[in-house]
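Justification of resources, computational component.

The compute hours requested in this renewal are based largely on the per-chain cost of generating structure records like the one below. Each record pairs the submitted sequence with a full structure-token output. That output is archived, and it is also reused by downstream analysis tasks.
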Amino acid sequence: MRALTGTGVLTRLALRRDRIRLPLWVVGLAGLFASIGNSITGLYENEAARLENAQVRADNVVTRAFTGPAPGSSSGALTVSEGLVFTCVLVALMNILLVVRHTRQNEELGRAELVGSAAVGRHAGLTAALLVAGLANVLLIVLSTLALIGMGMPAGGSVLAGVALGTVGLAFAGLTAIAAQLTESARAATGLGGLVLATTFLLRAAGDAFGNTASDDITVNPAWPSWFSPLGWGQQLRPYGESRVWPVALLLVCTAVSVLLAVWLSVHRDVGTGMLPARRGSVRASSSLLKPLGLVWRLQRGLLLGWMVGIAVFGAVFGGIGDQVEDLFSSEESAQFVRDLGGEGDLVNAYFAGMMGLLAVVVSGFTVQALIRLRSDEEGGPAEAVLATSVSRAHWVLAHALVALVGTALVLAVLGLSTGLAYGAVSDDLTGALGDLLETTLAQLAPTAVLAGFALAAFGLLPRLAAAVTWAAFAVCLVIGQFGTLLDLPDGLIDISPFSHLPNLPAESLTATPIVVMAALAAVLAAVGVAGFRRRSLALGG
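The structure output for this chain reads:
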């Protein structure tokens, strides 16, 4: 039997399984990058303002490390500086989740073994996953290019920007295929893919931070670490600037080598196993595992640690450029945009209000991940075995909710501490910065609790749709938080997000009323979810 027999059927199956989530990913990413370009065009309407912003970005090491320098002073070049790296990270994440879902997850759940008992070749499943990923990235190139051209951006730079997004995605699809061969579980494969993504981001950041600024005081020639990162290669296409095509070859070679290595590894292992040996557990189990709370904590602690480390890096970056805010947003249009996001008054406070509000919505992604674990545990995890004992359904659900909320509070505290320490160090006001920013981030626990309550209600009432519905709610909050003001959305639509009901801290004063109301709403939603779960049958195997 040929190694690729059945690839077409498995590809169609994968496309059918992802017929909703994959188009949302592709359209959303293309729209996100285009919307960043639209905002840049509106903020800097003349060449002098764009030139000053590009020079400030090139001069500030922290800004270069976080977003990368601009390849020029045009609106397109500033769009690349502001959004290319961030969007490439999301594209990489899309490909990591996509490839793991159709490779390692199929093996973990027994689907691959069942399918493999039919007339299916050894490499058909992996090839199908990579074909779907390739199709998604090609569509992303086309849509993002058309969106940028439609906004009036130069065609050549728009094509290169789209190619940068798509080829970076292809590289991470190949790297994730290797991760899927090395590990034994979908969670481990996703974690390994995320570790590779974080490492490549740090390499690119170090390369840009320690690079040399060219004679035009705008472009930056990165140091050597950036050349070990697919994110750095994508950035070196320099759309709307020097416009170089040859770094695409690096990304395509990385993709090809990764795919060949993944195929070779798949031949040297059994279905359901990984090349890396599974870590053996302790001979004696901790007594805490006898309680639902202890078991949930053990299941979630790795995820929590990863979020705390990641958000600490983001907080330090945003805090470290706090003293450069007035230079970065020196034009009247850009300063007003910051105040629209974070409130009137002091520009620095408005900046932190806007950024901390946005990062708080991002942190709620941890809350969603932690609570969606309820559904995966019900489908094929420990839920059935745990609930067969004396543990009640309410106890099991509330244990997950408590760990999710306490974990969220810890992540928010880390965000406030890292941002406050970084800003305090550059502003020489450590005590004031820590106090204000800790209050700002911890207050965000109230709207996050509402989203958590919504997740529990969806789990209790709509188990098979719980993940999709909850992630959709998260996406709505994220879009409203980042683009509500920019797109001039009506107040009624903005009010859908619970995060829009908090004062703009630290630019405004904290009041108790919205906190109390949101806490009560979260409790009601959680009660609805628990009641729904108690009344329905377990939806095993979803």
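DSSP finds 23 helices and two strands in the chain. The CA atoms of residues 33 and 83 lie 6 Å apart.
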